[in-house]
Amino acid sequence: MIPEVQSFFENYGWYMVLGFIVYLLLIKPYISNIQQQRALINQKKYDEQIDAKHQEKIEAARLRMQAEYEEERKRAKEKESQIPKTTKSLDFDPLAYIQSKVNRKPVVVFSKTTCPYCRKAKQILSTYRLSPDDYEIIELDQLKHCDEIQSALGSLTGARTVPRVFIKGDCIGGCDDTAQAHKEGRIEKLLTIANVNFYQ
User: Fold this and answer.
1) Is 107:191 a contact under the CB 8 Å cutoff?
2) Would you state the pLDDT for residue 37?
3) Collapsing DSSP states into helix, strand and coil, what is residue 92?
4) Three-state SS for 162?
5) pLDDT for 71-125, tens place per residue?
6) CB neighbours (10 Å) of residue 31?
7) Do residues 153 and 110 lie in contact, with contact meaning Cβ atoms separated by under 8 Å?
8) Strands 170-173 and 164-167, how do they pair?
9) Is the separation of the CB atoms in 136 and 109 below 8 Å?
10) At CB < 8 A and 24+ separation, what contacts does 82-89 make?
11) Which residue spans adopt a coiled-coil conformation according to this UniProt entry (predicted)?
């Protein structure tokens, strides 16, 4: 038996050695690479599952917060609806307020601090260097009766939007109207007729 084994190794031993070398140099790294790739794929799938679950939790939390916000807003509206509304104060007349303002000074602008159109109209008027004695800006969003005054402006001038620009008691319009009047030179004529004082 031993001579046969010895003969086998003598005839085929180098094949075995060569095969082992090939296994170490080629096959084993290839198998190891495949295993690593599979491990990476599995890890990626696991990470994606974790991310998906995390996103689901975030979305669920967002929806829950949104629902709570909507519910709170609904309760606030219901509470507000139960309070008797007084659209007009017994001791305040918005039309009289407007008339008193436009009669007091030659140039009056009804404006809002956050309105870009109001800013543009005020910038146009600022180029005339009007004296504070002849020029007043009324910021409605800083007044208690803002909505009432704005509604009264709508009744008086045909539009409740701001700005509303008055010269010598007459409304010349809003931002676009003021810009057009400035471009055509009508504002300067109106100011001259109104005897407005200018800074030198």
Assistant:
1) yes
2) 82
3) coil
4) coil
5) 877 887 777 666 554 444 568 999 999 999 999 999 999 999 999 999 999 999 9
6) 11
7) yes
8) antiparallel
9) yes
10) 87/147, 87/148, 88/148, 89/145, 89/148
11) 55-82
Q: What type of residue is 61? A: A
Mean pLDDT is lowest, of 88-97, 132-141, 158-167, for 88-97
Q: Which of 105, 113, 112, 120 shows the shortest CA–CA distance to 178?
A: 120
pLDDT of residue 66: 74
Choosing among 3.40.30.10, 3.30.499.10, 1.10.510.10, 3.40.50.2300, the CATH entry for 94-193 is: 3.40.30.10
What percent of the chain has pLDDT above 70?
A: 76
CA distance 144 to 169: 23
Q: Which residue has the tokens 């939790």?
A: 57
E strand spans, the chain: 107-111, 135-139, 164-167, 170-173
